From TrEMBL:
Pfam families: NMT1. InterPro entries: SsuA/THI5. Residues 50-133 form the SsuA/THI5-like domain. It comes from the Bacteria. This is ABC transporter substrate-binding protein. The lineage of its organism: Bacteria, Bacillati, Actinomycetota, Actinomycetes, Streptosporangiales. Gene3D superfamilies: Periplasmic binding protein-like II (3.40.190.10). It comes from Nonomuraea rosea.
Length: 293
């Protein structure tokens, strides 16, 4: 069986790309895309690929809207998200709660990194998300998405930043990066938060078309073998120092499986619901396939 697949350039899938690890009974045909967010959008809207990495928030939204896709509990990247919001010099913002009444730029409201950060700021720092004006410049991946009334689409966040009309913005926006990190001691706060909650933010899950659910176990086994090979290489080389550093805190820096990710997946579902992106908080077993191990 030939399966079309789109994956980001992650070290843990390199062995799948070059054929070192195969999916039993399948031949993977890799498709190239210019930007992974474009693949997320296409998978949410018309499912042109058999297998696709997808932003987990976009997946939850697409699933809730009836898209015929299902995700495997195979997160592709992990990163803590206390950091990543920068403030305008002279804004007087020194604490997440100070964002209330301010204008904050983000590429799109449902970007998973922003969902994580907003959720953390709300639960850990008492930020009322409804009192922030969230300014976006890109369309959401799931068509027909109804966003909270305090989300506004603008032409260019960079132009607003140039005019001093952005109080804060998520890092990485072209031309709209501002001043200092909102939480300067984010690394210490992240360590304490993980040790207390067990939540390890995930980005990118593997999504398949529903008619291929019978291949879930074979895919899980292949992805796991490729990851184990990668981690073995990374342990003795400089292939990915970031995951080696994360491993000192979390153990396995790239845990796969529903049980291993239950706490983190449940937190993301909770955040997505509370931020108005999905209508309820479905049990994770209803939206992620459990591997048969």
């Amino acid at each position: 069986m030939r399966l079309s697949i789109v994956l980001g350039p992650h070290g843990q899938v390199q062995d799948l790309r070059d054929g070192t690890v195969a999916v039993e009974g399948c031949e993977l045909e890799f498709a190239d895309v210019k930007r992974m967010p474009d693949a997320y959008r296409e998978m949410a809207r018309r499912q042109p690929y058999d297998i696709c990495e997808m932003a987990p928030t976009s997946y939850l939204m697409a699933k809730a809207a009836g898209a015929p896709i299902t995700a495997l509990p195979i997160p592709m990247t992990r990163r803590f998200r206390h950091a990543g919001v920068r403030t305008r010099p002279g804004s007087g913002i020194g604490h997440p709660k100070d964002l209330e009444g301010r204008r904050v730029g983000v590429r799109a409201y449902a970007v998973t990194a922003a969902v994580w950060t907003r959720g953390i700021y709300a639960e850990e720092y008492g930020l009322d998300l409804g009192k922030v004006t969230w300014l976006t410049q890109e369309e959401e991946n799931v068509p027909g998405t109804t966003l909270p009334p305090n989300v506004q689409r603008v032409e260019s966040l960079a132009d607003l930043a140039d005019r001093g009309e952005l109080d804060a913005a998520f890092a990485g926006l072209a031309g709209a990066d501002l001043g200092d990190e909102l939480i300067p001691d984010a690394r210490e706060r992240e360590r304490e938060w993980f040790q207390r909650t067990g939540v390890y933010p995930l980005h990118g899950v593997i999504v398949i078309r529903e008619e291929l659910c019978h291949l879930a176990q074979a895919l899980f086994e292949a992805f796991t073998r490729a990851k184990e090979n990668y981690l073995a290489r990374a342990a003795t080389t400089s292939e990915d120092l970031r995951y080696r550093a994360l491993g000192e805190l979390v153990g396995d820096p790239l845990p796969y499986g529903l049980k291993q990710n239950a706490t983190s997946l449940a937190a993301l579902v909770r955040y997505a619901h509370r931020q108005g992106l999905i209508p309820g908080e479905p049990p994770i077993e209803r939206v992620f396939l459990e591997e048969d191990r």
